[in-house]
Write a structure and sequence with these properties.
Chain lengths: 406, 427
């Protein structure tokens, strides 16, 4: 007795290109398969990692029977928000001391970006955002769904496999005054190519002279260099000049809290009064989206950030993850050199963070998947976090074959 | 002005030299941003917390309290958390969320042995509690039925209006609450259903209507369902209180089951905020019943496309708690017992409040206090009377006169009745 659905004409949406890689990997039965798709950290044994300090925080939370599961405020857990702002801006940040920062807990990086974008659509007079080319696949959709118009600025130079600094400066100079500019705070995804501090300073001056509004995406703080402060320098430079900016933070990778969806959006304003008003308006964006954010991940992060010993232990575990990735880069680079694979592979060790933009084209990638069961995104991006010492040979074999035969 | 010496790493020194652009003199981009009005519901608790009066009572937000006025974490939840702690894998869930949690959740709404579940005809994704489920549906409706509107009952949970507005779906209202009888305005409701253009989208509260506590009877639901068939309307159910209304989840799903029997292809938002006390975990589910499995797969994939640029994938912890409880018969039985306990306490408080008001000799009728169902009682008080309750008696509730019965206890019911009597006796 089924009625006709009003949604009968809906066609199936395409697989998400990034998450679809893992779906395909899971279907493969080869013992040699290697998943270098989604950016989730793996140990040397290829296993997901729950940080020790996170397990300790969890134990504390579950044994504290006074803790309730009630609704968080719309803006999230206050302790979490304070600590998150300090983490990205620096605990001695004048912006924080002057109460000029509006921080709201959001659903990881994605949620922070979306809430920020919705806020900009409603309250900012420019509705164009410039995103780097290339960028994380989900970025354009987030901003478009919020109603912003998306343009790109040059970023990656395939010839050098490094930063197209000239192109970047030209494109930002040509941007309409007041436009929003998305900046990856560190460990650019997917290329792993970051500006130097000097280049950041040039970018800052240029953007401020044109009144361009910086919107930072900080998904890898601590994960890129191993130092939380070093990885936040780009953001802190912009805040130090007294101007305004937005920053989206994620704890997915640097605390391994992927599935807990924990992050924060901080907006740095020129006055405490404006910060209060902005916070009140952020609530109006969040309430009709999901009312208030999830408590569990926030409690874990707040527990760790606010305990001296746990914070220290976290930095040690974080550095170990970053170091393992740096070591994988070195091993892969050495393997490519030893093989004598044609081309310059130094970008493998120059790029930073979880990803390496190999420079391989979609045909070569498809070849590596079908012949060597190596799974990666078709843009040639590999997640170094998914690599282990025992798999380096297999990967370098695959890359060598792809380069020489495709 | 910030002292530049407070900034570390020598950035300040580099900046102060050769730095031509004085941002300090530039005004903020945001000076025209108005302070937003406080949320009418959540703002109440904020005000309550700020009050230091010893007799203050919070009957504002709909979060359950025990008879000592304390928030409750269910035993089944504590046990589930004990089992989970230390072994929870924190990897990303798929975009559609925890399959296990969604499967168990569909059984609650559609029936343990639902043919629709067996035939895989339900497109379902984990959502951020009821709000998130409604928002996903509203966005989906906008995208795939762009010319449609949503009919919302008067009154309704205030956030419903915000949700469909932000999804840019135009809203219309339909009659629901009858002020004179403090019951259902069934005749006007049916008129609105008949007068709406064929194929209109309606949002219905499956049980325990918020804020009125007024639900259609089973007979009335059957008539509504019949008329929906005649008009080919789309029924979207918001079910935030399953189990909480009567104490029996199967009974509370009756309206949905009637619609399913009649062949409607419904949409449904489910929440575990109240009935499992998982408020802050933000666990819920959005489901859409389709013609067949193929269609369900397509619809689900599109729902995921909406979730991805909003939050990528939903939080794992709350989903794990739910699936741990519902997939373990012992824990599930414990949960059912605890839900009934909560519902029974509320029903008991309704009885006490009504008794107290009648014993005080109130000239007004208070039958509705026990006739209405679920967490809320629509008292019929005016905003001015509510303001008096707050200012003179430190009793906090939303200005529409909605009392959260979950906040009423043996300890405060007398005080509450007296205060209500005082502010209403002359009306």
């Amino acid at each position: 007795m089924a009625s006709v659905s009003v949604f009968a004409n809906i066609s199936q949406a395409p697989e998400d290109p990034i998450l679809g890689v893992t779906v395909a990997y899971n279907k493969d039965s080869s013992p040699h398969k290697l998943n270098l798709g989604v950016g989730a950290y793996r140990t040397e044994e290829g296993k997901p990692l729950v940080l020790d300090v996170v397990r300790r925080a969890e134990k504390l939370l579950v044994s504290d029977i006074s803790l309730k599961k009630e609704y968080l405020p719309i803006t999230g857990l206050a302790d979490f928000n304070k600590s998150s702002a300090k983490l990205i801006l620096g605990s001695d940040s004048p912006a924080i001391q002057e109460n000029r920062v509006a921080t709201v807990q959001c659903l990881s990086g994605t949620g922070s970006l979306r809430v920020g974008a919705e806020f900009l659509k409603k309250h900012y007079n420019q509705h164009t955002i410039y995103i780097p080319s290339p960028t994380w696949g989900n970025h354009p959709k987030i901003f478009m769904m919020a109603g912003l118009s998306v343009k790109t600025y040059r970023y990656y130079d395939p010839a050098t496999r490094g930063l197209d600094f000239e192109g970047l400066q030209q494109d930002l100079s040509a941007a309409t005054s007041g436009s929003i500019v998305l900046l990856h705070a560190c460990a650019h995804n997917p290329t792993g190519v970051d500006p130097t501090l000097d280049q950041w300073e040039h970018i800052r001056k240029l953007m401020r002279s044109k009144g361009l509004l910086p919107f930072f995406d900080s998904a890898y703080q601590g994960f890129a260099s191993g130092s939380l402060d070093a990885d936040a320098q780009s953001v802190r430079m912009f805040v130090a000049d007294g101007g305004e900016c937005l920053a989206a933070q994620s704890y997915a990778k640097n605390m391994g809290l992927y599935g807990e969806r924990i992050g924060a959006l901080s907006i740095v304003l020129t006055s405490a009064d404006v910060a209060r008003k902005v916070e009140s308006q952020l609530k109006l964006v969040i309430r009709p989206m999901y009312s208030s954010p999830p408590i569990h991940g926030a409690s874990i992060v707040a527990t760790i950030l606010n305990d001296r010993e746990m914070y220290h232990d976290w930095t040690v575990e974080l550095k170990a993850m970053a170091d393992r990735i740096i070591s994988m880069r070195k091993q892969l680079y050495d393997a490519m050199c030893a093989k004598g694979t044609p081309g310059d592979w130094s970008h493998i060790i120059k790029q930073i963070g979880m990803f390496t933009f190999t420079g391989l084209n979609p045909e070569q990638v498809a070849f590596m998947t079908s012949e060597y069961h190596v799974y990666m995104t078709s843009d040639g991006r590999i997640s170094m976090a998914g690599l282990s010492s025992s798999k380096v040979t297999h990967l370098s074999d695959a890359m060598h074959a792809a380069v020489t035969r495709v | 002005m910030a002292s530049r010496t407070a900034i570390s790493c020598g950035i300040a020194r580099r900046l102060s030299s050769g730095y031509g652009f004085a941002t300090r003199s530039m005004s903020s981009w945001w000076t025209d941003v108005e302070p937003a009005a406080k949320d009418p519901i959540l703002g109440v608790t904020e005000a309550f917390l700020a009050d230091t009066h010893p007799d203050k009572v919070n009957v504002g937000v709909g979060a359950y309290r025990d008879d000592d006025g304390k928030p409750v974490v269910l035993e089944c939840v504590r046990e589930a958390e004990r089992r989970i702690a230390g072994s929870e894998n924190m990897e990303y869930l798929p975009m559609g969320g925890s399959v296990k949690m969604v499967d168990e959740t569909l059984k609650l709404a559609y029936g343990e042995n639902s043919e629709f579940i067996k035939e895989k005809r339900i497109a379902a994704v984990q959502a951020l509690s009821g709000t998130g489920a409604c928002r996903l549906f509203a966005e989906f409706q906008k995208r795939f039925q762009p010319d449609s509107q949503i009919y919302i009952p008067i009154p309704t949970w205030s956030n419903h209006h915000n949700i469909w507005r932000d999804a840019q779906v135009p809203q219309r209202t339909f009659h629901y609450y009858h002020a004179e009888t403090r019951g259902l305005d069934f005749a006007s409701l049916m008129d609105d259903v008949k007068n709406a253009p064929n194929g209109s989208f309606f949002m219905l509260h499956a049980c325990a209507h918020n804020p009125t506590g007024v639900d259609p009877t089973e007979e009335q639901w059957r008539e509504i369902s019949y008329q929906f068939k005649v008009k080919n309307h789309f029924a979207f159910f918001d079910m935030a209180y399953q189990g909480f209304a009567s104490g029996d989840p199967e009974r509370d799903a009756k309206a949905i089951r009637i619609f399913l029997e009649d062949g409607h292809l419904i949409g449904c938002a489910q929440s575990y905020a109240k009935n499992m006390g998982l408020y802050g975990q933000r666990v819920g589910c959005l489901s859409i019943l389709c013609e067949d499995e193929l269609q369900a797969v397509a619809v689900k994939s599109q729902l995921q496309q909406i979730a991805r640029p909003m939050y990528s994938n939903p939080p794992v912890h709350g989903a794990l708690v739910v699936s741990t409880i519902l997939s373990d018969p012992t824990l599930k039985n414990l949960w059912l017992k605890e839900v009934k306990g909560m519902a029974d306490r509320i029903i008991g408080m309704r009885t006490k409040l009504r008794e107290n008001l009648e014993n005080l000799g109130s000239p007004l009728p208070w039958e509705h206090v026990t006739k209405q169902i679920g967490m809320f009682c629509y008292s019929g008080m005016t905003p001015e009377q509510v303001d008096r309750l707050t200012n003179e008696y430190h009793i906090y509730m939303t200005r529409n006169g909605r009392i959260s019965m979950a906040g009423v206890t043996t300890g405060n019911v007398g005080y509450l009745a007296k205060a209500i009597h005082e502010v209403t006796k002359s009306s």
